[in-house]
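Hey L., structure's done. Input below.
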Amino acid sequence: MSTKGGRNSSWSRLKPANQDIFEEMGLRSKGDKQLLDYKTQERFYNKIVERYMLFAADARRGDELNRKLARLNISQENGNRDPAQPVPNPADLTNSKADTNELDAITMGMRKLREGIVASKRIDDFSIQAYIFCILDEVLKAIAHDNYFLFWKVKRGMDGYKAKIMEFAGEEMKLHALKSIGKTYLSIDLDSLEQLTDSNWTTLTKVYNVGWQLEGTKVVIRKPKPR
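Output:
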């Protein structure tokens, strides 16, 4: 059937855009209901895994994947770069941004999937499989970003066997936490310090030889210089 002007109606229809499923899916907490459907959850999960595997395969070798993840270290952002380190190559900065954007998209996809699974009250083998993959991503993200707060949070939520496996990075994460706290704070609450380092005060003083002073429930790291 012809439309006004003599054109066939099929020619007047716009071809639907090939929309990225990562953009198409929304957060359940923001009102999106697409991921309440079990089949949609499974299709989206497969896309997340596929995208992560492509990201990893692009590295080709294990050391290259480590280098791509190391680019995501936020400790050198916002002008906090160590002056002793060489100025990064502009090409590396471009690659770093691309890697960060890709992992951010994957991480957001996992968050959307988790919210959908929880909201749909799904409890089966698929939900377990999806959560294991998401937990592994949280661990990798914590290590890549030197995020000791996230690292200990994930570790405390693991069972004994998985928490034991995470200990391979625990020592480095603990030392990074101590260095960061020492440079950032004049004093800190004892409970917060023990939580951020996953160590009690006795261990910190005897094993790690911190020279800080405990005054009641407050740890004095350094005192302000008199003016």
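Residues 1-12, 73-94 have pLDDT under 50 and may be disordered. DSSP finds ten helices and three strands in the chain.

-- N.
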